[in-house]
Design brief:
This protein is mostly helical. It has three domains: 103 residues, no CATH class; 78 residues, no CATH class; 130 residues, no CATH class. The protein has eleven helices and seven strands. The strands form three sheets. A three-stranded mixed β-sheet has the order 1-5-4, covered by helices on one side. The protein has a two-stranded antiparallel sheet with strand order 2-3. A hairpin with a 2-residue loop joins strand 6 and strand 7. The longest helix is centred in the middle third of the chain and has 19 residues. The two termini are 24 Å apart. The relative contact order is 0.11.
Amino acid sequence: MISRDNLRGIAGVMVAISIIGTIHLLKPGISAAPNFACGSTSGQIAEIDVRTGETGSEIARELADKGVTASFESFFRVAVGDSRSGRIAPGLHKIDMEICATDALLQLLDPKRIGNLLAINEGAWNSEVASKLSLIGYSKKEISEAFKNMERPKTFSSLEGLLFPAQYSFDSGTSVSKILQMMISRGIKELGIAGLSQGQGKFNSQQLLTIASLIQAEGDTKDFSKISRVIRNRLASGMRLQFDSTIHYIKGTRGSVFLSTKSTLLNSPFNTYQRYGLPPGPINNPGSDAMYAATHPATGKWLYFITVAPRDTRFTDSLDEFNNWKILYKKNLRAGKFGGKR
């Protein structure tokens, strides 16, 4: 899902390329630095650990020392002459050995070669973020303590919703606390861009973020602004939201479009089938599109919406029409149009 401002690239601190004290390497007349042939490789892999704030000369030295490039000078000259070198992300990069300096730069810019790349999907739960941190090598104890002790903005009662979904890269010495802070800082920035930070009307910033999380969970990007309007219309009319996504959040289950009647009776403040108003906090970490929709609802009188088939979500203010669509939804569900998941 592509975000509105196209911010799906690697998030994190960019690496600066330093030329201090090495300008003599670029003077005319200096002989060419030893370099491997482009397109060739030894077939072996080296791990290059780019640390936050590391200079171009330090990266060049490690590449040469580990046999990636033929010389320090070959990579340094390429890095100084190519502005893309400023986009090398911190992290443990798996790079082919015995390659030319230009190929080395291209591989360092390839996010697929970063071993400790943390990719967080839009709508991910904090529990899922914790699981991904565990998969890249952090201990459950360190993860648990970091979540427990992490400070959050005063206007928010939970970290849920504040860990902005994006791709994050970091060097091998980065703590879980620093990673979470990186995500929260990005989240706070996105809140400001979308207009959630100061609240809107009767909704404070946390309530708007909660609305954004519901929007994220309930539909596709093309329908976000309509879902935002349905939420506001239901709240204004005193109706329960009755969103399946809140039940899935309570149960910690994904992958099923079917919701049993028993599930709707669960005793939880997040159960929008039983409780009026918004849940007490976000039910996931929404992306920028959902945040924007939370403060920019479409114009309409809709009170109901239902996805009758994949990519076919319909909106209405008529309960009779909604019930007819519900029959169609059940028919399509039995026919396996939702992938056979019940």
